[in-house]
């Protein structure tokens, strides 16, 4: 495949490389330069005229990107994708009510097939908004696996486990069965361990999960200190912050994804930085709970690795990473009451930072050798002109309609608002079919108690 006449944007240094062609083969960018498309066309016609040409050789697919930008695909570092099914079903409530009165009751109703449908719906939404890779932390991940495989999306899957409550040991066993069976089944989909959080999981259980991660050479994905209350409770019960608990139990280590860490102390942030773990910052969730603080600025100052997540659509309502970036900038500026903090060159690179945290070195730059997970953006729309500042336009003005083509692993998966591997109408029809069963709240109690 050749992408012709594109402008490569680099968010790491806010640079542009104008009017170049990119050649893609076997899931990677193999060549960047001028005139590649012309050479391919000339080569193709030469081959067609040659008497002994290799007739089986297909002409190279050429995508005309004249006037468009190309960037690496966005990475959603923390999502509960199938919660698309619960979008809008727990509004205007605080965190405690959100969990105990809604989400953990709904999730008792979840069937494996619901996760398949909800994940396909979420994959559709992500791909159409330029997100090519997600770290998904949820239940029935064997069905999520099938959904991502069908969608053609890159994903890291963690089956959420509590280590406490009704039938928890069976859930853990199910997770290990999944890991054994699905590991290495698809090079685009990696698996991790997904203990829920230090406020739900017993600490002996966290230690066991960390040992298992070592034994199986797997990474971990866990929630930590999304509220100040969790820190206070941990300090009074254990004399340690939740991040320190993760350090003690062996969960804090290179490659671990910490969802939130929003109330990490400065000491915690140093621990996180030194451990090599990465944080998924999910600004819209905090904003919706009315909780504004300067975590992002402190984390970046401390040198911690930070990517962006959306969290589940039951708290965030969308799976858009451009929106997450915008909210991250707003929350930081508001927390410090200072328009000059969280500038574009600090915030925009975060849309890709999850790639490195997930183990793709150098992710975030369009270079020879980098993954062919790419997004073409069409700026010829009313909301993206004029171009006083291209990068400001992308951070603050872009909408889904600007996402022209999405490529994962060298294959086109979405083009001009259409998905090539998902029948969106059918997914929407199935969603409508299952939601009333899932949002039935006639239960004595929630799955867990917050
Ligand atoms: Zn979460």
Q: Specify Rg, calculated over alpha carbons.
A: 22 Å
Shape: globular
Number of strands: 17
Structural class: alpha/beta
Average pLDDT rating: 94
> Sheet with the most strands?
9 strands, mixed
Helix content: 25-40%
End-to-end distance, in Å? 50 Å
> Roughly what fraction of the amino acids lie in strands?
15-25%
Low-confidence stretches: none
Given the structure, what is the number of helices?
16
Identify the bound ligands.
Answer: zinc ion
Say what oligomer this is. Answer: single chain
Output the keywords.
single chain; 450 residues; alpha/beta; nine-stranded mixed sheet; eight-stranded parallel sheet; 16 helices; 17 strands; 22% strand; globular; binds zinc ion
Description:
The protein has 450 residues and is an alpha/beta fold. Helices cover 39% and strands 22% of the residues. The strands form two sheets. Strands 1, 2, 3, 4, 5, 14, 15, 16 and 17 form a nine-stranded mixed β-sheet that branches. Strands 6-7-8-9-10-11-12-13 form an eight-stranded parallel β-sheet. The radius of gyration is 22 Å and the shape is globular. It binds zinc ion. Zinc ion (ZN) binds at residues 78, 80, 223, 259, 311.
Write the topology of this structure.
Layout: E1 2-10, E2 15-25, E3 28-33, H1 36-49, E4 62-64, E5 69-72, E6 74-79, H2 95-106, H3 112-128, E7 131-138, H4 141-151, E8 154-161, H5 168-182, E9 189-195, H6 203-216, E10 219-224, H7 228-238, H8 242-249, E11 257-260, H9 266-275, E12 278-281, H10 283-288, H11 295-302, E13 305-308, H12 321-336, H13 344-347, H14 350-357, E14 374-377, H15 390-396, E15 403-408, E16 411-415, E17 418-419, H16 424-438
Helix pairs in contact: 3-4, 3-16, 6-8
Bound molecules: zinc ion.
